[in-house]
Amino acid sequence: MIRTPPRFKALLIRLIAAQACYYMIVSIDLTLTGLVGLLLAPVPALVTLPLSLIVVVGTLCSFVAGHAAARFGYRPVMVAGALTAIAGGLISAIAVASHSFTLFCLGTALTGGYRAVGGFLRFIASDYAPPAQRERSLALVMYGGIAAAALGPFAAVAASHAALQPYVGSCLLIAVLGIVALCLALTMPPATNTASESRQPAIEIRAQRGNPHFQQAVLVLAGSGLVMTLVMASGPLANDHAGHSATVGASMIQWHLIGMFAPSALSALLLKKYGTFVTNLLGGLVMFAGCAVALFSDSGAAMIATLTLVGIGWNILFVSGSALLLKAYPQGRGSKLQGFSDGVTAGLSAAGSFGAAWLLHQAQWRGVNLIAVAVVAVVLILLTLFNARRREPHLPLAPTPHAEVAG
């Protein structure tokens, strides 16, 4: 049994805390940005613009952040991201206090810049972990999301009533969390953990376009992100259309968030025991089952079951897809690939978020989930074809931290 070095254990704790800050800010954004937009927007068509800017800017910055991390290391990228969160929170608070919609859009755009760097936290853990514990460490960082799921929405609402003017306190809370994230970012190590690897450049994206591990990682992460966001964004609206209570809607989101983060250790165990292909199949089948429930019932219990299973399936696929990405590059040299993968995932997730309301209006709750079922089925079919083409046995991951990966 390999014992984790004490210094890495301390780093892992800091990474989990940083992940909690990240998802707390995301949770506040999801909870209140639309409501503030409704309050400040000059016309109804612009109500969702601030939330859209968070997603769009975050998507664009994901690609930039990957290249920046390759050149400068993780620490300055994480510091820059935390500074944008602080600036975004402060500017948003000033915007709400002064009733300036334009200024609020600037503040949310800056917050979107911070969201682009949160995905690196799990990869920092994998870069510094002992080779046999890379996938497990990646999964453990996800536990920071549990605290955010439990506290984020309630903290956002409580902070909104802390100031004389509604929502100013919530924006200031983002800035405070950004300060905590900055303090944690300053303790982060550089992009690699060995001197020999630090002299080698990050793997180029074009060099890995034909790498099956890279292809499957992008497929799994982007496909599961699209389905998860589509179902999550349309769920509360469908709950309202079905005439269920607000309590059911809150339970739906709460159990969805628990499903997204609580099974991380189980996902890592499945990955270790069965390997990436079988784990991806299991995650896809859980997500498929969750969407399928919605095809037969739109009761409150069925909606909660749908979002819970979709959350669990996403967690399994997210951990397994991230592990596939680890196999596409030598340890410590994957920042460009990480940024590309997170950027594509964020882009498709944004598409799911933007299209959720329109699809729900056109196709109802069952129609939305029928589309989700089809997407999951396509991902599983493509994964099976990839695996059949490689004609390799489905063995658990074998760490190869120092081996070059063929392009």
From TrEMBL:
Keywords associated with the record: Membrane, Transmembrane, Transmembrane helix
The keyword Membrane appears for this protein: yes
Residues annotated as domain Major facilitator superfamily (MFS) profile: 213-407
Compartment(s): Cell membrane
InterPro entries per the UniProt record, alphabetical: MFS (IPR011701), MFS_dom (IPR020846), MFS_trans_sf (IPR036259)
Main location as per UniProt: membrane
UniProt-recorded name of the protein: Major facilitator superfamily (MFS) profile domain-containing protein
Organism from which the protein derives: Arthrobacter psychrolactophilus
